[in-house]
Amino acid sequence: MNLPSTIKTSVRALRANWARSLLTILGIVIGVMAIVLVISLGQGAQNLILSQVQSIGSNTIILRPGRQPTQPSDAAETLLTDSLKQKDIDALLKPINVPDLQAADPAVLVPGAIGYQNSVYHATVLGWTPNALGEVFNVYPEQGSFFTQDDVKSYAKVIVIGSKVKQELFGDSDALGQFVTVHGQKLQVVGILPAKGQVTAFNVDDIGLIPYSTAQKTLLGIDYFHEIFLRAKPEANVDQVAADITATLRESHNITDPTKDDFFVVTQKTIVATVSTVTQVLTIFLVAIASISLMVGGIGIMNIMLVSVTERTQEIGLRKALGATNKNILMQFMIEAIILTFAGGLLGTLIAITISALVSFVAQTYFALAWPFTLPLGAIVLGVGVSTAIGLIFGLYPARKAAAKDPIEALRFE
Amino acid sequence: MALIQLENITKSYESEGTLTPVLHGISFSIQEGEFVSIMGPSGSGKSTLLHILGLLDRQTTGSYLFNSQDTSMLDDPARARIRNKYIGFVFQAFHLLKRTTVLENVMLPLYYSDVPKKEYAQKAKIALEHVELSHRLDHLPSQLSGGERQRVAIARALVNDPKVIFADEPTGNLDSKTGATVMNTIEKLHHQGKTIIVITHETAAADYANRIITITDGLISSDKNVTAPHTHYAK
Fold it and tell me: Which of the residues A139, A183, A288, B182 has an alpha carbon 20 to 30 A from that of A197?
């Protein structure tokens, strides 16, 4: 029996019980859909994160206290360590230590909220240098101006706020020159940022910027920094600059064993590598979970195929009497199983692509995220391929049972 | 040369360790072109004999030459090929595929044959002409009467131009009038040169044959040629 007529016979048999066929492949549809969706969304999310990382600029180097987290318990150490102080910045800025360093902007994170009269708004309050936001992220106040280097020196109680902070606290009334409360201190609003949304790691609309000196001494009473943004000279080799920074800090911190570092250096390159690793591990993990549903779907197919074989005992007997060999019968039922799972895989893939495209559309339209829709060709091949393979594996047992039927018994079956 | 030659065929079924003998030693030959009825009460072993003759089952002992070939030497695919090429089956319960048109039901054996695909429809139409059902090509079996269904089954048995047609109680599910039409159709095939072997317990149907073999308790109790034309069915 040739392949086209076998396929035709199989399709007819499946269509005769189309509702059952549809329910049978549901497990496969869901499994394949989950796999393709996870891969597709994972790719989209990874691309989104990477594009934001890239917007930091390739010559930006971030210095953090603590140890590069390599396992979950390490993450806590980052916040607890107070290893980065003003003397480190002074040492780094000496050209003899790091020749290609252009600037160092320390940052202090102030927990808490911004208050004005009776309203309180939970924003990200950051103690920073006057030029960091403008020069690193190219964002400048649309009203007023940044605080100055003199403000830093004099521990001035001033703040630059994001557009959303302004809107939440002041509404449409004028905010410039007003006093807001942070950590019990009254700070004067000297600048308001334009609505820019997410820029790299933080949302500019949701931010309060104050001189880092004020944040350290007046608000928190600490002498260390949470983060230092460093900029290499435009033509510099960033890896070399990062190595120089590491060497300088090890010297000034008296560290001889690199595993005992109380700081870590992050460049665009290392972030990209970390993000890729994390999303890949996550994707593999989720795909593994989704595969379980594919497995269950395969067992469902086997179950229904077994029922179908029993129901069609007579047909099998007749075909054998008319000259069908065991191989012919095996082929017929295998092809039925494969058509089922292939269709399931295709359907699941189509649904997943539709959802994925929809997610990227919603993210772009309503959340202003640069979430790209990528057609995950690998995922499609994987989804359809794996589901077809499942048809082969789980179809084999029922098909063998069909092929092994004795034509006499089969014809007697009523 | 005999088309079918049985030598001391026995058949026993084994179930739960006990052997149940059904055929005790059957020997006969059938020449090409004969019309043979195998008769006997139910339980006599005639259906078992038909299954062995039709290569659907294997004898326990004894030799069976079909078309001068020792069938005990044949493996399953070879037996399937012989069934497809040389044997046509007609069953009591018709065994037509439900959701399949008359034409495609008749084409079914060709799927497993060497016949080129483009000849399928033509061959099936010729077979349906023989049973006078050319006007029913696109009907489903459920739209046909019992007699018509059995004639479709006969067309299916004919389509690959077999040497012999085995009919197992072909009129068992039909009233006597439609039974007569079906038997007339089978008789016509005999006149065209086909070897016909009909298993039946109805003397009316058996009377179409020119030789009647009677099986009782797994043994041949009589084997005689009949020359008298059948008289039981009203013509």
Answer: A183
Tell me the sheet residues that pair with B165: B88, B196
State residue A243's pLDDT score: 87
Res A19 pLDDT > 50? yes
Residue A398 sits at φ, ψ, to 5 deg, of -60, -40
Residue A95, pLDDT > 90, answer: no
pLDDT band of residue B3 (cuts 50, 70, 90) is very high
Architecture of domain B4-225: 3-Layer(aba) Sandwich (3.40)
How many C-beta atoms surround the C-beta of residue B157 within 10 A? 28
The pair phi, psi for residue B163, each rounded to 5°, is: -80, -35
Residue B29 has pLDDT above 70, yes or no: yes
Residue-averaged pLDDT of chain A: 84
- Number of helices and strands in chain B (H, E): 7, 10
The H-assigned helical ranges of A237-312 are 238-252, 268-311
pTM (2 d.p.): 0.71
Alpha-carbon gap: A315 to the closest alpha carbon of chain B (Å) = 7
Nearest alpha-carbon partner for A321 in B82, B22, B107: B82
How do the domains of chain B map onto residue ranges? 4-225
Question: Which of A2, A5, A321 is the closest to B89 by Cβ?
Answer: A321
ipTM score of complex: 0.91
Phi then psi dihedrals of residue A402, to 5 deg:
-65, -45
Q: In the block, which residue shows the tokens 């040492």?
A: A91
